[in-house]
Amino acid sequence: MSDTPAAPQLDVKRWWPAPMLPESDGRQLTLLFVLVVLCMLASLSVIGALAAGRAAQGWKAQLVGSATVVVRATDKESADAAAARAAETLAGVKGVTEARALERDKAEALVKPFLGPDPLPPDLPVPRLVAVELDKKAPAGAAALQAALKAAGVDATVDDHSLWTRQIMSAGALADWVATGLFAMIVAAAAALIAFATRQGLATRQELVTVLHLAGATDAFIARQFQARFARMAFFAGFWGGTLAAVGAAALKLYDRGQTIAALLPLEWTDLFAPLPCPFTAALIAAVAARLTAEGALRRMT
Amino acid sequence: MSRNPDTSQAEGALQSAETAPVVAFEGVSMRYGREPEVLKDVGFSLPRGSFHFLMGASGSGKSTLLKLIYLAEQASRGRVELFGRDVAQVKPKDRPFLRRRIGVVFQEFRLLEHLSAFDNAALALRVLGQKPTSYRQDVAELLSWVGLSHRMHAMPQALSGGEKQRLAIARAVIHRPDILLADEPTGNVDFAMSLRILRLFSELNRMGATVLIASHDEEMVARSGKPVLHLENGRLTRYEGVSRSGSTPPPAPEAEADEEAGL
Questions:
Q1: How many Cβ atoms are within 10 Å of B35's Cβ, its own excluded?
Q2: N or C: which end of chain B has fewer CB within 10 A?
């Protein structure tokens, strides 16, 4: 029955079905590019959240582990003597590991920005500072320190940095929420993109869908073809997006040397592994989005 | 050729009423939107294992009648039964299982352009979820049978009209359907090729498939000696060898008729 010249023979034993959907075209390259960018942004948001959390924890640890006491002179006692007595008193309080009165020049350095660089008059009543190191496991509270000073008759104010700690912790929580929100928005955008691409794919492959239906294919079978196609593409995009994010973060850590951004967001090398699940997460999101969209659209078609 | 492994419950349910006519139309009318009726009060039945031609001029409703059988359209009025089941009552989720019992050769072939001849021929088996290792030899044998053993690699665009026709036929029969419908299957081939294609259909009919072929090639139909359904302006005007009530007597021995017709 042949009416054409012989062509290369097919090795039937090695034959395997070709993809049911046509191979990728220009539109899919655009989609792939957008998915790579989204995956990179999602990975960066995760890396950023890890670093922001670490920064907040670090600042909190520094503030919680210490307190500052401002000691004022009285009619009966000079500021230096009062500071020395305050340090001695505080060193005996439970939950304090060390209390040290700072020299006058350190106290003056603190007020220099407000009073100018000229030497201060010797009779200016500059308060003295006592730096207190607290026990990290069971730190003494501001009230306990204040009570001890009052009992010793020292006119002083205790600052246990709790105001700053609260602000830093709320800033850290906010950073977490922002990163989570950003991640969620990127995931939603990726899912919407896949849903749109699936609908487009079904519309442009109308003939294929009809032929498959007439061959007895179920909606689930057809939806699976789109699901597999987009899951594969998202896996690929997740791999490259995650890799680009890790490379970018590594470059920042290497070249910034903790001077600018890295000072606010202290990256660790382990953070660079955060994008590892990105290909799998992206594939899962794409698979679910494509499957649900395709099944819904096919149901409406039939 | 592989046999469709009917394993699902839904499919099993569809195989009830095995003794009923394979196809039965009762007062069926069909219109597209607000257009005039394409089919008007059509009634006939096709017993299991029968072989019929469907004749009529262009626009007489042949393709629409076939579409109602292969569930591409739904009748506007009347009752269409497939394998004893009213298709209007078949749930959408069960329709694929009914369609798997039908093989269709479309007038315009409807081959998938991005798939090779081999992949196109294997389509129905793939849809059934069979493993490629279990059917690839069957597909190769069928393609050899229709004379395409040297064109298995070829994409449909590279095939001639006759080759496409034979590939479309191979795709329609690979899963050994219970009904084979063909819409002008010899429209693109010469007379000698028409006879060869008809011989292939007769072979499938001998193997148990019910065959209905839409054609306007009177010479070929007359030569075949098969019973004919005649459509004229959407009405069934003649039922040669077919009972309108559905009580069609068993078909004449097809093999003898084929031999007489040179098929």
A1: 8
A2: N
